[in-house]
Design brief:
Blueprint: H1 2-8, H2 17-50
């Protein structure tokens, strides 16, 4: 929650409930994508340093 609020703001700016739902959905998608990118970088660096085989 902290990362979401600090990067994208802690409030929904839309007045209508339907628009607030869309806004919250987009915020979650952005946060999930950023998390995926970060995990890919970490996994890549671990594989280079320790020569591990990927689990997946």
């Amino acid at each position: 929650m902290f990362r979401l609020k600090s990067m994208l703001g802690g409030v929904l700016r839309s007045r209508k409930f339907e628009n607030q739902q869309t806004e919250a959905y987009l915020m979650a998608k952005i946060l999930n994508r950023m998390t995926q990118i970060r995990h890919a970088k970490i996994r890549k660096s671990c594989l280079k340093k320790r020569h591990w085989e990927p689990i997946f």
